[in-house]
Design brief:
Jelly Rolls, 6-stranded antiparallel β-sheet, elongated, disordered N terminus
């Protein structure tokens, strides 16, 4: 009886031995972070302290007229990251005259090239003395060869970019500023904020097979 049982189950055992082991799924590539390729409509210049490139964010509604960021080919969602600053015009005369105070709130929007809003970023800062400036920009006529316009404050912004989106535009949306010149708001084409250190975190898409 035992021999019969062995004969009955032997073919099944042989089939199991011949069956190829299941292939393990290929793990997704690890995420990487790299400097983003951008088109800056109005560059501010290079920072004296950090060596970073600074770009004005202008108020508007057309993504192509903003700071256009190319997202590398990616698998799944990517993350757009940048530092957002307020724009301040430094005046030594105003400081000496006791008129140095300024306060800024700026909001920028990140949109797809078809004008779909992905998210917003904001920065708020105050100026009283030169020590409040985040950075000075080279290439100006001021003492030390720096420009009067400088980034003020810093807010690290992170925006999720859907898998199907390969290009976005950063546009100025809101400006609420109180300066020696009075109250300032966003109008089309006006500088709302400054961006720097633009980069992208993403999982690279596999190379296409020929």
């Amino acid at each position: 009886m035992a021999a019969i049982v062995l004969l009955v189950f032997a073919p099944d055992a042989d089939a199991q031995r011949r069956r190829a082991p299941a292939k393990k799924p290929v793990p997704p590539p690890p995420p990487k972070v790299e400097a983003a390729q951008i088109k800056c409509p109005e560059p501010l210049g290079t920072g004296v302290k950090t060596g970073a490139s600074y770009c004005f964010v202008l108020a508007g509604r057309e993504p192509a007229q903003g700071v256009v960021v190319t997202i590398p080919p990616h698998v799944g969602p990517a993350t757009l990251m940048f530092d957002l600053h307020n724009r301040h015009t430094y005046s030594e005369e105003d400081i000496r005259a006791g008129r140095g105070f300024a306060k800024y709130t700026a909001v920028v929007a990140v949109l797809t090239m078809t004008s779909e809003l992905l998210d917003r970023g904001a920065v708020q800062s105050e100026f009283r003395t030169a020590g409040d400036l985040y950075e000075r920009i080279s290439g100006g006529a001021g003492p030390g060869g720096v420009k009067a316009v400088a980034p003020l404050g810093k807010e690290e912004i992170k925006i999720t970019i859907p898998a199907a989106v390969n290009e976005v535009g950063i546009l100025g949306e809101v400006l609420d500023a109180t300066t020696t010149a009075g109250r300032e708001t966003a109008t089309p084409g006006r500088t709302v904020a400054i961006v720097s250190n633009v980069r992208v975190e993403f999982r690279p898409a596999p190379a296409k097979k020929r």
